[in-house]
Amino acid sequence: MRMTFRGTWLLPVSLLRLLLLIVIREVGNHNYDSSQRLGTYYDFIVIGAGSAGAAVAARLSEVPGWRVLLLESGGQPPPESHVPALFSVLLQGDADWNFKSTRQKHGLRGFQDQSIIINRGKVVGGTSTINFMMYVRGHRKDFDNWAAMGNPGWDYASVLPYFKKSEDYRGTRHAATAEYHGFGGPLSVEDKSWYSPILHGFLAAGQQLGYHIIDPNGPEMIGFSVPDMTIKDGWRWTTAEAYLKPAADRRNLHVVLNAHVTQIMFDQNKRAVGVRFDHKGESKTALVKREIIVSGGAISSPQILMVSGVGPAKHLHQHGIPIVADVPGVGQNLQDHASIFGLSWTTSPGTTISLLTLANPTALADYIFRRKGPFSTPIGIEGHAWIEADEGDPYWPELQFLFISGTAMFDNGIAIPDLIGYNRQFFYDYFLPIQGEDGFSIAPMLTRARSRGSVTLKSSDPKAHPVIDPNYLSHPTDVKNLIKGVKFALAVGNTPAMKEGFNAKFHDKVVPGCEHFIVGTDEYWECLIRHLTATTYHFAGTCKMAPGSDPYGVVDHNLKVRGVAGLRVADASVMPLVVSANPNAAIIMIGEKVADLIKADWGAISPYPPTVGYL
Q: What are 456's strand-pairing partners?
């Protein structure tokens, strides 16, 4: 089957290589690595140069008297990472950790081995270098709830200044909500600049269903929207570009790439005093005078803590790791935004994106000479929406909908099955009838999933991938909410805007494995959900921020790790509950805020008082 479309695939790939040769000469290939200046003692060591870690290191290095070391396991950004449309080329490559989940008991039935590849950035800039670039902060109640759970200083009014501090809003759509945006910050945020005709139908469908077109980063999150993107003038804008490149001339900031941290070292008083890391085939040591900040992400941060002796004592004993601090919550509370991928509709020809769109020489020229057109934006998700919750505050959404221009057969089954992880036989059995058709997909996404998983150690080897069990769909409320999501997606597809305007027709082939259920019943939709629901790559929660009364808390509200001194965690892992949207913006906010917390603790005057700028 794959060979049938080989000729179709080779033309765009050849054109993309030509594009890269031209583009990279212009953007330049900045050398972030300063390992030739590596010293022995630093005031602060930051582990991980991702969405939070790059912000933390850059902000700490603003204090001239502090020496800051930033250690990153990955290397330089690959050339294709600069071109927004090529984000999928980065997945499962050298810039990706290529983690894999355990076999899932309750779902992933349409996926190979009932498991998934978990894409996380192993590169300077971290996952901001390989992600979809959507800029959404989350609902104000996400943060108010963090504070209500016993984490003072994390309410919406307290974190909004840090969102605004990080942001350089360059868009045009949200003039009415400008007071909620930041201007002049390091992170460029722009309108999604190119989209296919079907997006107009999606927005009109929302209006026909009674919803407004909104700015989800403004005062209201219920409604339909076109995403804002972390892009600048047609380039992907990572935290490496935003924070590290401007700080590169500071002599007090040392960035070491391809440096895999193997252990955090503690003294007899359980104070973090340094790190060991592998670099260029050697085991090296760096010592710290003040603090270590772990920003490895929701998968790697708990692993680093555990191999260093901070974690559940029984689990560490099983792997022969000496106990520094018994912290049972390390690696627990794993959360993700599970999404249904595969609800597809066919449409009239020429209304959605296709491989021919990218292969068109006009599109290529438009990007090379003007930084416009389909290459200037990530391909796929063109709109999103949030709807009211059934329980509790109705305006705190439990579902987000990702509107995708294209079906799972977008590339005729060449790469998508492996990128997403479908079982190929299942994939072709279900999707083959819409091969060659224009169409769109709507992916209902759980924003506040109840299911909880874990990250545990496979062995004491710090280079062995951990055991990652998302435990998808283990909570019945998640299934119930996704059934609601399916029905709402169908309602969108059935609006006059979609049916009459674009001839939308739902792909109603019975899902293989669900033949014994009556199509359209809740039982059938549950079966579909257990086959087609997978990750949205929004992992969080494994080093939970919580008060001392919570036995599974890992860090306090200042992000200091329990049971030890001189150690903090700052990334998605500290979220007690993942935010109700794509989390990259919130992770950067966490990096910004912890930098000010550290500055306050060590007597440095913050350039941005946290009490300024909220509404």
A: 467
Residue with tokens 């169409």: 439
CA 159/CA 143 separation, integer angstroms = 8
Q: Please give the radius of gyration of the chain, using alpha carbons only, rounded to the nearest integer.
A: 23
Residue the block writes with tokens 């600069």: 82
- Options 106, 337, 538, 557, the catalytic residue: 538
Q: What is the predicted pLDDT for the residue at 20?
A: 57
**What residue type is 191 in one-letter code?**
D
Are residues 213 and 207 in contact, defined by beta-carbon separation less than 8 angstroms? yes
Ordered mean pLDDT values, 10 residues apiece, the chain (615 residues): 37 54 62 93 98 98 97 92 80 87 98 95 95 96 98 98 97 94 97 92 98 96 97 95 94 97 98 97 97 98 98 98 98 98 94 79 85 88 96 96 93 86 95 94 98 98 97 98 98 98 97 97 98 97 98 98 98 98 98 97 72 39
Handedness of CA 52, 379, 401, 385 (dihedral sign): positive
**Joined tokens for residue 328:** 């049972």
Q: Are 134 and 229 in contact (CB under 8 A)?
A: yes
What does each C-alpha distance from 507 to 70, 244, 372, 433, 521 come to in angstroms? 49, 46, 33, 9, 16
Check residue 24 and give its pLDDT.
56
Cα dihedral 567, 569, 575, 578, rounded to 10, equals -160
Residue 538 annotated to the active site: yes
| Of residues 339, 302, 303, the one with CA closest to residue 541 | 302
Q: What integer pLDDT is reported at residue 370 of this predicted model? A: 86
Other beta carbons within 10 angstroms of residue 392's beta carbon come to 10
Whole-model pTM?
A: 0.95
What does the pLDDT read at residue 11? 46
Residue 152's identity, in one-letter code, is P
Q: What is the pLDDT of residue 18?
A: 60
Residue 451 C-beta-side C-alpha neighbours within 13 Å: 27
Integer Cα distance of 531 and 514 in angstroms = 9
Question: What gap in Å lies between CA 272 and CA 269, rounded to an integer?
Answer: 9
How far is Cα 472 from Cα 530, in angstroms, rounded to an integer?
Answer: 9
Type of residue found at 350:
G
Superfamily the domain 31-77+123-191+227-332+541-609 falls into: FAD/NAD(P)-binding domain (3.50.50.60)
Continuous segment of H or E residues that includes residue 491: helix 476-493
Which parts of 49-163 are beta strand (E)? Answer: 68-71, 99-100, 117-118
- Residue 537's Cβ-side half-sphere holds a number of Cα atoms within 13 Å equal to 24
In 3D, which of 242, 291, 333 has the Cα closest to residue 50? Answer: 242
CB 551 within 8 A of CB 328: yes
Output b/e per residue, 547-585; b: 16+ Cβ within 10 A: eeebebbbbbbbbbbbebebbbbbbbbbbbbbbbbbbbb
C-alpha to C-alpha distance for 46 and 245, rounded to whole angstroms? 16
